[in-house]
Write a structure and sequence with these properties.
- The protein is mainly α and about 325 residues long.
- Helix content is about 45%, strand content about 5%.
- It contains 13 helices and six strands.
- A two-stranded antiparallel sheet has the order 1-2.
- Strand 5 and strand 6 form a beta hairpin.
- Helix 5 packs antiparallel against helix 6.
- It is elongated.
- It starts with a helix and ends with a helix.
């Protein structure tokens, strides 16, 4: 009787341990490009999806199915049979990965998101979206491709400009089998839908190009936080441009220094991102802005302010004269 109770306890305890182990195992499994069938089997075994590498590999070798296993990120469960797993790998039914693009992110930031999500398109995405004159594009074995995306709304971009500014911030479900070109098309189409086709978005000002609007919005995204401040700062910066006064924004210079150092952006003239020495907008967008920032750039708030700064707590302080601005800087920043 005691022996039976001990056996029953051992079986139940073993089952509980097995369930506990299963609950901590990730439901996703990744086959990397170039993985051999032996590497796949070893990883499946170590992650608890199969019981034996031998019984998984041998049938694949005999049938030749090992040649049909496709790279990607798959959603598996511990209850699946070897045949079910192989069928999933053969058909390439990969699991979608959610990518959250936050307003203010750059092309490089998005590429890193793809890589962090285990998606294989990150490098190709970077090459396709960067300016044609970037180091990455210049070193490519094929010609730069940012110009191949032919949405009409991007026709006013300068020659060689990349896709910075037009990659609409949103949440996307992306499969590992989707091409980098397909991902970019989705982001661009989303920009078209939310910015240009939406009836809630203000119409484009006749005196400004979309490229100018996107560039200004990308600056606002980095400079201030609220819609009210963005609209007010947009009014100040557009006013400065109109009278030939330098915009004097720090964010564009920081963008160029960071990206140029990494070889991700090379402007035709290195100084065109320096809005202190040069009048007008920087050469191009410095981030992918939110709809809020785009709206502010399209519909700015007029005021008699010429200067602004961000205080230590993030509050935006406005000034009418340079003297007032310097006093506020000493008071709220220095």
């Amino acid at each position: 009787m005691q022996l039976r109770l001990f056996i029953l306890f051992f079986v139940v305890f073993g089952f509980v341990l097995q369930v506990s182990a299963a609950s901590t195992t990730t439901p996703f499994f990744t086959i990397h490009k170039g993985d051999s069938v032996f590497e796949i089997a070893r990883n499946l075994k170590s992650e608890g999806f199969i019981k034996s590498r031998f019984t998984f590999v041998v049938p694949l070798l005999f049938t030749g199915k090992y040649k049909k296993l496709q790279a990607g990120r798959y959603a598996l469960s511990l209850g699946m049979s070897n045949k079910e797993i192989v069928r999933l790998f053969e058909e390439g039914r990969t699991a979608a990965v959610r990518i959250d693009i936050i307003p203010g992110m750059t092309i490089n930031d998005i590429s890193k998101l793809l890589s962090k999500g285990g998606l294989p398109q990150s490098e190709e995405f970077l090459r396709l979206a960067l300016p044609d004159n970037s180091v990455a594009s210049a070193n490519s074995t094929t010609s730069p491709n940012s110009s191949k995306f032919s949405q009409k709304f991007m026709a006013d971009r300068p020659k060689g400009a990349g896709l910075e500014g037009y990659l609409y911030p949103d949440s996307y479900l992306i499969e590992s089998t989707e091409t980098a070109e397909g991902i970019i098309d989705r982001l661009l189409n989303n920009f078209d839908t939310h910015v240009l086709q939406s009836t809630s978005t203000p119409p484009l000002p006749k005196k400004r190009s979309l490229y100018e609007i996107v560039t200004m919005a990308s600056i606002l995204e980095k400079e201030v936080r609220t819609l009210e401040d963005k609209k007010k700062v947009a009014g100040i910066l557009w006013k400065r441009q109109e009278v030939g006064m330098p915009l004097q924004v720090d964010s564009s210079g920081k963008y160029f220094l960071e990206k140029n150092k990494a070889g991700l952006v090379v402007a035709p003239d290195n100084m065109t991102y320096n809005t202190y020495d040069h009048v007008g907008l920087p050469w191009g967008p410095i981030s992918n802005p939110s709809l809020e920032s785009l709206t502010a750039a399209m519909k700015p708030t007029a005021s008699d302010y010429w200067y602004y700064l961000s205080s230590r707590d993030g509050t935006t302080i406005y000034s009418r004269t340079l003297g007032e601005h310097l006093i506020n800087k000493a008071k709220f920043v220095d």
